[in-house]
Amino acid sequence: MKALIVDDSAVMRKIVIQALAQAGITDVTEAADGGEAVSAAAAGDFSLVLMDWNMPTMTGIDALKAIRAAGNNVPVIMVTTEAEKSRVLEALKCGANNYIVKPFKPEAVGQKIQDVLAKAAS
Q1: Looking at the domain 2-121, which fold is it?
Q2: pTM for the structure as a whole
Q3: Which residue, 115, 113, 89, is CA-closest to 28?
Q4: Which of 32, 74, 108, 109 is the most buried (most CB within 10 A)?
């Protein structure tokens, strides 16, 4: 399984990568903003994308919209500090498959990934 981690914080990317490793996912590509995410998603064959919302250049929600507009149905989990219900609903409406609020426990990431991949497979 190949995952794309998108966050402008290198520290947060490392935290997410560690959480993925605990879930058995070690083939990881990193992107520092939404623009890089859109390019990587178009060029790569990812099983999963974990994406921050608030980033420079292009936000995660704009990147999500661009990925979906390109016809890419890769499962996307937003990993963000945006905890308001309206923001969660906006992300889901734009095509996010699930949502994790920072800070999070690594086990929560593993559970969300299992949920998203199970739904994608059915």
Answers
A1: Rossmann fold (3.40.50)
A2: 0.93
A3: 113
A4: 109
